[in-house]
Amino acid sequence: MLITLNPRKTSGEDLPKSVLDAVCAADVVISACSRSPYHSSLKTLAQEAGTRGALNSPPHESGWVDGAMHYDFAELRKPAATLRAILTEGTTARVTAPNGTDVTMSIAGRKAVGWLAGMAQNPCETMAWPGGEVSLPPVEGTTNGRVVVEVAMTDIGGVRTPIEWTVEGGLVRRIEGGKEADLLLRTIEGVENARNIGELGIGINPGARLVDDITEAKKRRGTAHIAMGDSANGYGGETVCDLHLDGLIPEVTIEIDGEPVVLSGKLQF
Length: 269
What we know:
Helix content: 10-25%
Strand order of the largest sheet: 9-8-7-4-3-13-14-15
Structural class: alpha+beta
Number of helices: 6
Number of strands: 15
Distance between the termini: 41 Å
Largest sheet: 8 strands, antiparallel
């Protein structure tokens, strides 16, 4: 069955009930929406129904025929599983980058996801295409510091002027930059819990390109992405929000409990 629908206003906004019902009745589903439904009720409902598949995929042709989708996802499984264990067993994460990013957060008790690396082989397994990230939701209220988003961001597109977030107590208190920052402010205006820090993700796919589409760019090996908005809906956090917006940070250094897992964009495991 092929279903087409009008784009959602934001990534994370729920799909119509008729679409959700069709997904839950299916064995396998592939979603290629311009606004990602991955962080909506779709994931929880699909898993409860035993559906497997890709709940987020590139919405344009280039993302399917070039770049990260051509890398052997099977080769990503081992580093993904290793990183999953490191994050799940960790308690504190620090992300720094040459662009001025310096942010810390608690990850204690949070289970890393995304380690399926683009392969959903069993019922209830859901993932995103292209394969190439491992992520988890930080503990609510614990993220503090400065995040500088470059290259791409969910629902914003390409980022020409860096977007700077000032984060205190797990919330983005201030957003500064150029026109992309202004667009982000308009996107989150009036959306409950939109300023929550909902995710830390680490890219591990060497075939991923730093393009305007965050769906591929955030899978680039040696990058991080930090999200605003939803951290619940089958993801492991406690904050429910109608949007989930990933912001890319290139060439990062990431320390888990003081030990580097990424150093200047190079994996250390």
